[in-house]
Amino acid sequence: MSDPAELSKAKYSRVLLKMSGEAFGHGGQSGISIDETLRIARQIKRVAESGVQIAVVVGGGNILRGAQFSAKGEVINESTAHYMGMLATLMNGLALQESLESIGVQTRLQTALRVDSVAEFFIRRRALRHLEKGRVVILGGGTGNPHVTTDTAAALRGIELEVDVLLKATRVDGVYSDDPEKNPHAVRYDRLTYDRTIKEKLRVMDLSAIEMCEKNKLPILVFNYKKEGNIERAVAGHTIGTLVSE
Ligand code: UDP
Questions:
Q1: How far, in whole angstroms, is CA 48 from its chain's centroid?
Q2: Under 8 Å CB-to-CB from 209, ≥6 apart: which residues?
Q3: CA pair distance 15, 154, nearest whole angstrom
Q4: Ligand 1 centre from 6 Cα, in Å?
Q5: What Rg do the C-alpha atoms of the chain give, in angstroms?
Q6: What is the rounded distance in angstroms from the CA atom of residue 246 to the CA atom of residue 240?
Q7: How many CB atoms lie within 10 A of CB 125?
Q8: Does the pLDDT at position 240 exceed 80?
Q9: What are the residues whose beta carbons fall under 8 Å from the beta carbon of 238, sequence distance 6 or more?
């Protein structure tokens, strides 16, 4: 969907989009693909131009994940590896920022980890002000703390910024009873409660992120970002993916 009329009737007025690092990569390989980043940027642009306020939490898995990296040997302390992962999210954040600005979208990159020369520090009220002014707010550096992931950052910032929905972009069509990439008989759920998601250990987000969303009644829409136009469809409230709510 790229029909702006659809987005003008968007269901949500402020959203938080969680993009995993792999969305900025070259299909499973390490590094950043500018083509892929621009593809995402063009969709975000259409959302922002429709008047929907959008904040984007970026992951870093295309460059480095702390837990995997530190597991490779005993040289790198695990906490350090997580800080490296947080820095990786900032690289993706800068790539997304430049891609958006290159197509005429106003952005601000905020970071939870102090890197003063490249991004402003995350300050909730400032982020809200940027959103109100129609700027796309990119959130890098995760939570700023090691041993968690950007899923937790997405839940946390979604709650702080009082968004209507957390849009969790994945490469599958939603939440399945089993891994759909391995089990062809896995079934997709249209809707799930937080409770069931937690009890059945369904692969939505980290447990701490789901629990935080449950406590604060923040719905999560898990959808496939690989299908062109799906970010806009998710914002417009189309019945795609899996909605996790009360
Ligand atoms: N990370 C962290 N604290 C945070 C967010 C991220 O320590 O609040 C580190 C962690 O090591 C993580 C890495 O940064 O593996 C990259 O983030 P993530 O794995 O969430 O990226 P994604 O899987 O979404 O690409």
A1: 16
A2: 149, 151, 152, 154, 155
A3: 11
A4: 34
A5: 17
A6: 18
A7: 7
A8: yes
A9: 1
Phi, psi of 236 (to 5 degrees): -70, -15
- Confidence (pLDDT) at 103: 98
Q: Ligand 1: which of 65, 110, 143 to mutate, judged by most atoms within 8 Å of the beta carbon?
A: 65
C-alpha 193/C-alpha 214 separation (Å) is 9
CB 80 near ligand 1, within 6 Å: no
Give the separation between CA 203 and CA 230, rounded to whole angstroms: 20
| pLDDT score recorded for residue 27 | 80
Taking each helix axis as running N to C, give the angle between helix 34-49 and helix 78-102, from 0 to 180 degrees, rounded to the nearest 10.
Answer: 60
Q: Which residues of 71-108 are buried (b: 16+ CB within 10 A; e: fewer)?
A: eeeeeeeeeebbbbbbbbbbbbbbbbbebbeeeebebb
CATH number of 4-238: 3.40.1160.10
User: How is residue 49 written in tokens?
Assistant: 């131009």
Say if ligand 1 is within 6 A of residue 157 CB: no
Q: Is the pLDDT of residue 6 over 70?
A: no
> ∠ CA 8-9-12 to the nearest 5 degrees?
100
Q: Which residue, judged by its Cα, is nearest atom 6 of ligand 1?
A: 149
DSSP 90-104: HHHHHHHHHHHHHTT
Count Cα neighbours of 71 within 13 Å in the Cβ-side half-sphere.
5
Instruction: Assess whether pLDDT exceeds 90 at residue 11.
Output: no
What's the 145 CA to ligand 1 centre distance in angstroms?
A: 10
Confirm if 44 and 56 have CB atoms less than 8 A apart.
yes
Looking up tokens 């029909």, which residue turns up? 3
